[in-house]
Amino acid sequence: MSTSAGIHHVTAICGDPRRNVAFYTGSLGLRLVKKTVNFDDPTTWHLYYGDETGSPGTALTFFAWGNVPPGHTGVGQAVATAFTIPERSLAYWTDRFAERGIPHDQPERRFGDTVVSFRDPDGMNLELVAAKGTRVLPAWSDGVPAEHAIRGFFGVTLLVADVESTARVLTQAVGFTLHGQEGNRHRFVASGGPLGTAVDVRVEPGSAVGRQGAGSVHHVAFRASDDAAEMEMAAAVRALALQPTDQIDRHYFRSVYFREPGGVLLEIATDGPGFTVDEPKATLGSSLKLPAWYEPRRVEIEAALPALA
């Protein structure tokens, strides 16, 4: 069985990039750690948010696709992305949501933790999990008191029609173990901790297949410590009769992609080299960064990108 320290990053789709930046930095207090482009479509922004350095387990990223229609939540998708906050910070956040008009639900209990669901401006399903032991973790605090700040990911929820094949991928390829079950929700956990260690698999056999669009998760990436670990995990994926891609250089990490049998697009990403490879920690996210192969087109690319401010 391959091993993983948990979730590396989650990549989603948004519409207006200015609205996206305002929400994730201004309302949630995350740091914009990288402004770059979609390496497969350099006319669109790829924005990264996280802790001070966007370390693995904290990075939520967005393809800003402009006027893309809203997505439709359904089978074959990651349908919720959960952040972890200190156990006593829930009231702070529900008050903040109310003050800012952020749509949110009543708290609920799940596997012993209290969870509040809320939505971003594109309707993306997000959650805050008030988890024990979280307060001691480092946090980026800009506009949110440090004692209440988001620490990083708690986990994600996948929606599938059948749990068995997805469970095999989680346990045999990316190193999670089954933790428990509540109703139609099966929880799998990684031992690497402390962030991004939970994957919940919700099973709804009769639900419609999801459609990607604004507010949808595009893919979920799992951590590999280095290239050797990534190749081991990719081999485990192939052993399940799935077809991972070759390794792709994403400049800040190296990636392998595959679609699990339930329909969710997954990625394995190396921990390094990280976001400080092309700008210092103090000024992360302050200017457009392009990989070397796009630098000759910088003027053209900058002209095509919508303003963020």
CATH level-two architecture: Roll
Q: Can you tell me the number of structural domains? A: 1
Class from helix and strand fractions = alpha+beta
Average pLDDT number: 96
CA-atom Rg in angstroms = 18 Å
Protein model, in words:
The chain has 309 residues and is an alpha+beta fold. It has one domain (7-304): 2,3-Dihydroxybiphenyl 1,2-Dioxygenase, domain 1 (Roll). The chain contains 5 helices and 16 strands. The protein has helices at 17-27, 90-100, 163-173, 227-239, 298-304; strands at 7-14, 31-38, 41-50, 59-64, 77-86, 108-110, 113-119, 125-131, 152-160, 177-182, 185-189, 198-203, 217-224, 248-249, 254-259, 265-270. The protein has an 8-stranded mixed β-sheet with strand order 2-3-4-1-13-16-15-14. The radius of gyration is 18 Å and the shape is globular. The chain starts with 6 loop residues before the first strand and ends in a 5-residue tail after the last helix. The model has no long low-confidence stretch (mean pLDDT 96).
Task: Name the descriptors.
5 helices; eight-stranded mixed sheet; 16 strands; alpha+beta; 17% helix
Quick synopsis:
The chain has helices at 17-27, 90-100, 163-173, 227-239, 298-304, and strands at residues 7-14, 31-38, 41-50, 59-64, 77-86, 108-110, 113-119, 125-131, 152-160, 177-182, 185-189, 198-203, 217-224, 248-249, 254-259, 265-270. By secondary structure, the chain is of the alpha+beta class.
